[in-house]
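Box 3.1. Reading complex inputs
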Amino acid sequence: MSGMAEMKPIQKMPLNQIDLMDDTFSVNYLPNLQSLRSSIKEIGLIQPVLLRKKSGGYQIVCGFRRVSAMKELGKSEIEVRVFEEKEMDAFQLFSLSLHENLTTRGFNAVEKAIALEKLIHRFQIHPDKVIKTFLPLFSLEPNEKILNTYLSLAQMEDEIKTYVLKEEVSRSNIRRLTGLTPEDRMAILSLISPLKLGENRLREALTLLEEISRRNQCTVREIVQRPEIQTILSQKELTPSQKTERVKKVLMDLRYPKMRQLEENFEKKRKDLNLPSNISLRHQPFFEGKGLKVEFQFETMEEYRSILLSLSQLVAKEEFREMIVLSKGQRT
Amino acid sequence: MFPFQIEKIYLDEKAEKDSVSKTILKALSDIPVETVQDKRGLIKQFFSMPDSIGVGKRHLLITHFYGRRLKPCPGTSNHICCGYYVINAITNCPMDCSYCVLQGYLNNPFLTLYTNWDDLLQEIDVFLSSDRQSFLRLGTGELSDSLALESIFPFSPFLIQFFAERHNGILELKTKSANVNHLLHLNHRGKTVVSWSLNPPKMIEEEETRTAPLKERIDAARGCQEKGYPLGFHFDPIIYHEGWERGYQETILQLFKQIDPKRVVWISLGGFRYPPKLKAIAEERFPKTRVFLGELFPGRDAKFRYLKEIRVEMYQKMAGWLKEINPDLFIYLCMESKEVWEKVFGWAPENSRHLNQMFEKRVRKFVK
């Protein structure tokens, strides 16, 4: 705690004198009060909260979580130190509050976003100063891109912020969400929430959605609401990872339609050949390069003979000839 | 005037006394200059800036180059390449094309001019002397635009005159600019090919920032043609987009309304392709770019290319439109597989060496 605050005498303050709605200095987002409540219950409040006098009561400078916990525990008063109304300006107090919170609990991503947003918009601190002074304070690299990412996050919908915190979404994926409209973000949320995507899968999904939207000149919401995607999401028997695979297939088909056609044609011909399951026939990755690959597996001489017979019969099949053409990336 | 802005010049103290440095500083007399001792520290400092690539294009570094400045074009593995040699006269480019591979390639963000010219000319001289039987093609347009910085330091006239006196080498100046007036009076003796990268006007407007419009490029080419320069054209990168056929066909028609196909020594076709790390860099710098929205997949050399079916379609149509203009045009594919050559032309060079021999034969027809 700052020296100035420490010099203030500790006093008891009735909770009803404190304006809990005044969030001037608050950056709290989804605070976890459980452990704090238990601690207060066990050993009481260790650190007094900091207040500032204002007309008709007091505003909280530091200690929003402690005040909330005390209130939830049914306490009627709390130990405080008090700044007079004009003793320090609002920015100084906000800065003091940030420092104190950093030494005690740290901030989650959304709280950092709220703090940076308040510094710029409420306390009118120049962005250059915020970048140089406050980003390192939050253990962030001091550059404009990072600042803009957090400022965008501060503006996002509560549901998105909650998802960002819960799934520990990376900054690069937050940036991908930034470029979308609120409607598109909410549509994406309805898609990604049930899938429980990791970082890479989320990046893949966001990139595909954004690129399909730009290619096909449609909104992300329209893509998410496509029946084939909604059907997958509604299938209760599927695990999140099965849903993810299927949704990805739909998105890849939308993003790469010509490739999908080639793959479908190849697959259809492969099925028409009715090969036994121990023989596989594959094209080169992305149909780049020439040739087909045949793989087979056997355990006995009889199986081996049977495979050779199947393979030799391929020569007479029109579908096989067509597959050779397809494998070169040409249509039949 | 310059079509681009230079905010500051960094002058390496080792280049301070060079006459080339003095010429540059005179041309840019109103721009602040800082002499630097630690070039590496400066480069490191700039790379840590946001959009270091964009910032680097506005800052000029004048320095020496100590390594080899003449190298075989890196080409790409498992593909047929043409045996071209790259001259590193300038590094980086003031133009700013969204698809430019230099964004992820250079280890120095500055527009960099090297002042030790004598070393470069000597290196080229030794190189050409070492193989008098071949006819070698060399160019300055790989690590920069060959003509974009001529208003600061007109280095191409030196090279044109240098090559005019050589018997087994031809220089290519590759550009997206129209800065040719200072070349028109030179005695090039047919040893310099001036070439333009071309794209339809829509692509130029959307993806090629600070380059000359198509009409100006073609007018400049006509000016060079009238002065006897052999010409080259590069439809590279060809960008597959809605209406691409119309865009490229009209570009070809517009080009040959003014250009005599008999004066065109070579035309290259190359579909848009990129190394994996370019996409993230380019999309960050050009959020509206659409070049990455095509169906592009990694090939055997790890570069992303359009699906083969798309490339073949683009090349076949482009080659068809060009051959309609003149069936004798020398058209080649840049960094493509033998298989794609076969599909497009019905034949393929046996290997890169074979393609190089074809180039030699072609070039000899144009050289006086």
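In summary: The CA atoms of residues 245 and 302 of chain B lie 28 Å apart.
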